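W.,

You were right to be curious about this one. When I first looked at the sequence I had no strong expectations either way, so I just let the prediction run and decided to look at it fresh. Below is the sequence, 260 residues in total, followed by the output.
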Amino acid sequence: MNNKSKMIVNPFEKVMNFRDMGGYQTEDGRRVKKGILYRSGDLSKMTENDKAVFEKLGIRTIFDYRDHGEAKAKPDPEFSNVVNIRIPAKGNVGFEMPTVTLKDINNRELLKNINADIFNKMYSQMAFNNPSYKKLMEIIQEPDQLGLLHHCAAGKDRTGVGGALILLTLGISRATILVDYLLTNDYMKPMRDAMIPILSQHLNEQEMQQFGDIMSAKESYLQAVFNAIDQNYGDTDRFLEAEFGLDFSKRQRLQRYYLE
């Protein structure tokens, strides 16, 4: 697999936007190992078959970025020998994260408050002084807590930032991380396409644009993270060390474990 394409393979029936984060190549030619790091959307609708598939993946930690209300409404399943950790990652952005349902999206009050500018602002803040991502970066340093599945509601925004932080730590280029982030659009396309004709009967053109802002992974969103890193710290190395204590030697150790 090259860094410009990735097969859309989701072994689950009712887990959206699931994928293995392995396979990406670093600039020195090594690759992220498969079968250790996974990302997804909501897990609450897992079928019995999904649970059987999950139990074969070797996952020991489920890390949930959602807020309390989201998790209470759609709780994660529990498995033996798997630790469930939830630390909200959104931060104080002034709105509740929408769940990926027609009921929530077909809501004019919601659409008044959420647009691309709001998402850009949220992304630019999430990577800094965030207890959720600090814990995430602790977990990836503990082999006995791996494999890891990290997720939010759609597996797009909060999971997108978490995935970017992990891949930055492993020495994956920003361009490749953006490729991984934008894959969400391919994984979510069937659901998004099914919702559009229904919503278009009720929402005006501007509201449909805001629906697109909510349901899409946009390059500008993740670029807002990278821009904020450079503005606050100058480069990725200083950022990872200051925010997460990941100095050069710790990153090298992680790369020896996660790369092949």
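Here's what jumped out at me. The first strand starts at residue 19 and ends at 20. And, maybe more interesting for your project: The domain at 19-258 is CATH 3.90.190.10 (Protein-Tyrosine Phosphatase; Chain A).

Coffee later to discuss?

I.
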